[in-house]
Structures are given as C-alpha cells and as structure tokens.
TrEMBL record:
<dbReference type="InterPro" id="IPR003607">
    <property type="entry name" value="HD/PDEase_dom"/>
</dbReference>
<dbReference type="InterPro" id="IPR006674">
    <property type="entry name" value="HD_domain"/>
</dbReference>
<keyword id="KW-0378">Hydrolase</keyword>
<dbReference type="GO" id="GO:0008893">
    <property type="term" value="F:guanosine-3',5'-bis(diphosphate) 3'-diphosphatase activity"/>
</dbReference>
<dbReference type="InterPro" id="IPR052194">
    <property type="entry name" value="MESH1"/>
</dbReference>
<feature type="domain" description="HD">
    <location>
        <begin position="28"/>
        <end position="123"/>
    </location>
</feature>
<protein>
    <submittedName>
        <fullName>Bifunctional (P)ppGpp synthetase/guanosine-3',5'-bis(Diphosphate) 3'-pyrophosphohydrolase</fullName>
    </submittedName>
</protein>
<dbReference type="Pfam" id="PF13328">
    <property type="entry name" value="HD_4"/>
</dbReference>
Length: 172
C-alpha cells in the first residue's frame, strides 16, 4: 500500500501541469489512475509491481522523468515494466506506432497487463470523451491500431482481453 501511494504521489507531481486531449482537458493523472482501477477493480490484479507500473507508465514517455529516477524510487522491476511500455520518442510518429505493434508479442507478462489497461482506458476515452479535433475516421484508425497492438499480446490476461474486446465492439 505504501509504495502504491508513493507512486500515485510521484506521478501526480510529474504530470501536474499536463492535461488529456478531451474537450474538458481532464487532468493527466486521471488516466494513470484509471489504468490501476481497471487492473485492480475490473480484473482483480494485486501484483503491486504491475499496479505501480500502471500508475507510472507515462512518466518517462511524457515527462522529464528518467529511468534512473524511477529505479531509485521504485526499484528495477517496476522500472523495467515502465520501460517496456514506453515509446521511443526519437522515432517518427508512424514508426512509433508500428513499433508498438511489432514489440507487443515480446512484452513480459506484467507489461502486457499494463499495455492492455492503457489501451482499454484510451479506447474508453475515444468512445466517451474523444479529442474534439479528431474526425470519425481518425477515431476509427486509432481504435483499429489499438486492436493490432492487443492482438499481438493475447493469451495471458483473458479477462483484460475480454474487456478490451467489449470496448472495441463499442468503438465509433
Ligand atoms: P495520438 O498518438 O496523437 O493520440 C493518441 C494518444 O493520445 C493516446 O494513445 C493517448 O496516449 C493520448 N490521449 C490523451 N487524451 C486522449 C483522449 N481523450 N482520447 C484518446 N487518447 C488520448 O493519435 P494518433 O496519432 O494515434 O492518431 C490516431 C490515428 O489517426 C492514427 O492511427 C493515425 O494513423 C490516424 N491519423 C489520422 C489523421 C487524420 O486526419 N485522419 C491525422 C493523424 C493521424 P497516452 O496513453 O500515451 O497518453
Ligand atoms: Zn497511457
């Protein structure tokens, strides 16, 4: 419990000036918290390394946080999971999206859970609170790309996969 609260406080601080892309500009931290809620409440995940990695999953990708900083605060195992679900931002955008599809089959079991929760959360956002400047076509292309990523990591988290599939069926 203590390390989980520490992760929430760490991520809330790192994301404090960021907002999501929905019309209401939701505080960014709502998204990592949503991942942990999906994992714990909807799938019964109790592995604290997975839950911490879910809370921290966008800190390296979207803030100035370094892997060394995460390792010092949360250890190597949590940092490894976060790094597995972190895009290489030096790549062009389309290459990053292709890389997520290509790397999905090689993710560890713990990273698969975080990746599934991330795509479930983002698909829910696209359905309920999409970025206002996204066309229907863009929402559909985004949903289909999420499915290509998830199709590459199936077989280990059947409950999460079923939740993802339900969301995908409700896509725009
Ligand atoms: P982006 O990568 O720009 O945005 C999606 C990411 O934004 C999510 O993965 C999520 O990432 C974050 N995010 C923040 N707020 C929201 C929200 N409310 N809803 C959903 N995601 C949110 O989008 P893409 O480049 O992936 O564009 C989607 C698709 O559209 C692509 O497949 C691309 O090919 C296509 N496209 C179409 C265009 C068009 O005009 N038709 C133009 C550009 C792209 P995180 O969890 O990391 O925060
Ligand atoms: Zn995310």
């Amino acid at each position: 419990m203590e390390v989980l609260i520490k992760a929430v406080a760490f991520a809330a601080h790192k994301h404090k000036d960021q907002r999501r892309k929905d019309a209401g500009a939701t505080p960014y931290i709502n998204h990592p918290v949503a991942l942990a809620d999906i994992l714990a409440s909807e799938c019964g995940v109790t592995d604290v390394e997975i839950l911490c990695a879910a809370i921290l999953h966008d800190t390296i990708e979207d803030t100035e946080t370094t892997p060394e900083e995460l390792t010092a605060a949360f250890g190597e195992r949590v940092t490894k999971i976060v790094l597995e679900v972190t895009d290489d931002k030096s790549l062009p955008k389309q290459d990053r999206k292709d890389a997520q599809v290509a790397h999905a089959p090689y993710l560890s079991t713990q990273a698969r859970a975080v990746k599934l929760a991330d795509k479930i959360s983002n698909l829910r956002d696209v359905i309920k609170t999409p970025p206002p400047d996204w066309s229907l076509q863009r929402c559909q292309e985004y949903s289909d790309w999420c499915k290509r990523v998830i199709d590459g990591l199936r077989g280990e988290w059947l409950v999460l996969e079923a939740i993802f599939d339900k969301q995908y069926r409700e896509r725009p």
